[in-house]
Amino acid sequence: LEHTPTPWKIHYYSGSPDAEIRSLNGRHICSMPTDFHGENVGEIQKAITIEDRANGRYIIRAVNSHDALVEATKDAIRTMRTYGTNNMQYSIDRLNAALKLAEKESE
């Protein structure tokens, strides 16, 4: 099963504290968390915190850069193997480990 094509973006609702992550064509990916504030004031006031917004931006950055990171890593490994390098095995091993982690499916 393939994921929704990237890039994704954060959509903040006008006049509302709610937000969601969407694809470029507007498909809903997930809702962003909302913290609840205002005990004993007759109504619950919702607000997306600064941390929530930072988390949303981090998710978007990771998702939108993933494919490029994987391809760049594969290319760097191919280049190093093709043109030969001295003492580059450490870098190749690190790139292979990063690639394995980036390509790992979520459990």
What are the SSEs and their pairings?
Layout: E1 8-12, E2 19-23, E3 28-31, E4 35-37, E5 45-47, H1 50-83, H2 89-103
Antiparallel strand pairs: 1-2, 2-3, 4-5
What does this structure look like?
The protein has two helices and five strands, in the order E-E-E-E-E-H-H. The longest helix has 34 residues, at 50-83. Strand 1 (8-12) and strand 2 form a beta hairpin. Strands 1-2-3 form a three-stranded antiparallel β-sheet, covered by helices on one side. It has helices at 50-83, 89-103; strands at 8-12, 19-23, 28-31, 35-37, 45-47. Helix content is 46%, strand content 19%. The protein is elongated, with a radius of gyration of 20 Å. It has 107 residues and is α+β, with helices and mostly antiparallel strands. The relative contact order is 0.13. Helix 1 crosses helix 2.
- In one word, what is the shape? elongated
Given as residue ranges, the uncertain stretches (5+ residues, pLDDT < 50) are: 38-44
How much strand? 15-25%
Report the structural category.
alpha+beta
> What profile does the largest beta sheet have?
3 strands, antiparallel
Helix count from the secondary structure assignment: 2
Succession of helices and strands: EEEEEHH
